[in-house]
From TrEMBL:
GO BP annotations, alphabetical order: pyruvate decarboxylation to acetyl-CoA
Protein name stated in the entry: Pyruvate dehydrogenase E1 component subunit alpha
Claim: Transferase is one of the keywords in the record: no
Gene from which the chain derives: pdhA
Subunit field text: Heterodimer of an alpha and a beta chain.
Alphabetical list of NCBIfam families matching this protein: PDH_E1_alph_y
Cofactor(s), by name: thiamine diphosphate
Species of origin: Sphingomonas baiyangensis
Function: The pyruvate dehydrogenase complex catalyzes the overall conversion of pyruvate to acetyl-CoA and CO(2). It contains multiple copies of three enzymatic components: pyruvate dehydrogenase (E1), dihydrolipoamide acetyltransferase (E2) and lipoamide dehydrogenase (E3).
Keywords for the protein's UniProt record, in alphabetical order: Oxidoreductase, Pyruvate, Thiamine pyrophosphate
Molecular function terms, GO-annotated: pyruvate dehydrogenase (acetyl-transferring) activity
Pfam families noted in UniProt: E1_dh
InterPro entries: DH_E1 (IPR001017), PDH_E1_Alpha_Subunit (IPR050642), Pyrv_DH_E1_asu_subgrp-y (IPR017597), THDP-binding (IPR029061)
Lineage summary: Bacteria, Pseudomonadati, Pseudomonadota, Alphaproteobacteria, Sphingomonadales
Length: 349
């Protein structure tokens, strides 16, 4: 009986005996690559700071969730994808992921200020940005929904045999949502090419992962579905990229889905309206002082012989790009009233 119970229903060996991905090492970046990672992370940091300012000035309406602190995750992971072949989908904290994919900061900022030139014609705002050209499928406000949609994108990759992989991001809070596990089941059963990325920034809106999760080691959440998981330092861009390489090997090798739990931290509130009563200032300051992903890359660059003076032009270039994006977003016209009637799905079901 015990023997029979140990056998898998689909005749594959029990999970304990199965092949597992290796714990990935840090990616060995060239100086040029590391400089590019630095540039991209700094762009996200400065862009988000500016978005925070514009929000404070009343130029951005609705919700706005900043990515400050988490930059290494999007940059490290997406630097290893093939734009236009692989697909990406995420939740509402999406500006950083778009920037990491090289999407024009002007059209992202213009979307934030609700202008016609915005990437969703000013009608999506912070949480609903898409670039089908990049196969970037949002930007979703419903917690966890992007996981099921991501499974759908992965199904399409498999169905069309296009060699692509879907990278589906979600948070530690979303990891407790039911539909996530329905998606896990199907993705594993059909061996879909999908990397489930849990951005564990330690908090949902105001609840810490330990308070809300019976199993807070989120990389283990796929065990019941035969999806292996890896826990990664999400404050280290090279660890993130190393993880992506291992995950791609697994998924492109036809072995089905994999989970990457990225241990990261958000410095700012959940959204721009967050009373921040659930954690101390000291905790945030300590993360900023000891684990900042950008400072870390700076130190690595220094070790490679790149001086502070060599980084200055990059900092200046980024400030210019961000300030131009804000000017563009402030001065671009709002959508015409007629736009209320376009891009609206009206059908009878
Ligand atoms: C289905 C659903 N339930 C609740 C909410 C409200 N809500 C928005 S964000 C959030 C917390 C999600 O936290 P997490 O998944 O950790 O993502 P993070 O904000 O940390 O990136 C909640 C509960 C929602 N948008 N959708
Ligand atoms: Mg979270």
């Amino acid at each position: 009986m015990a023997k029979a119970a140990a056998r898998s229903a689909n005749s594959e060996p029990p999970i304990s005996n199965r092949e597992r991905p290796e714990q990935p090492g840090r990616y060995e970046a060239s100086k040029e690559e590391l400089l590019e990672f630095y540039r991209q992370m700094l762009l996200i940091r400065r862009f988000e700071e500016k978005a925070g300012q514009l929000y404070g000035l009343g130029l951005i309406g609705g919700f706005c969730h900043l990515y400050i602190g988490q930059e290494a995750v999007a940059v490290g992971l997406q630097s290893g994808l093939e734009i236009g072949k692989d697909s990406v989908i995420t939740g509402y904290r999406d500006h950083g992921h778009m920037l990491a994919y090289g999407i024009d900061p002007n059209v992202i900022m213009a979307e934030l200020t609700g202008r016609q030139a915005g990437i969703s014609k000013g009608k999506g705002g912070s949480m609903h940005m898409f670039s089908t050209e990049h196969r970037f499928y949002g930007g979703h406000g419903i917690v966890g929904a992007q996981v099921s949609l991501g499974a759908g994108l992965a199904f399409k990759h498999k169905y069309e045999d296009d060699g692509g992989v879907c990278l589906a991001y979600f948070g530690d809070g979303a990891a407790n949502q039911g539909q996530v596990y329905e998606a896990f089941n199907m993705a594993s059963l059909w061996k879909l090419p999908i990397i489930f990325v849990i951005e564990n920034n330690q908090y949902a809106m105001g609840t810490s992962v330990n308070r809300s999760s019976a199993e807070d080691q989120l990389y283990k959440r796929g065990e019941s579905f035969r999806i292996p998981g890896l826990q990664i330092d999400g404050m280290d861009v090279l660890a993130c990229r190393g993880a992506l390489e291992e995950a791609l090997k697994w998924v492109r090798g036809g072995k089905g889905p994999i989970i990457l739990e990225m241990k990261t931290y958000r410095y700012r509130g959940h959204s721009m309206s967050d009373p921040a009563k659930y954690r101390s200032r000291d905790e945030v300051q300590s993360m900023r002082d000891n684990s900042d992903p950008i400072e870390r890359v700076k130190r690595e660059l220094e070790a490679m012989g790149v001086s502070e003076a060599e980084l200055k032009p990059i900092d200046q270039e980024i400030r210019k790009i961000v300030s131009e994006s804000a000017d563009f977003a402030e001065n671009a016209p709002e959508p015409e009233p007629g736009e209320l009637y376009t891009d609206v799905l009206v059908e009878t079901y």
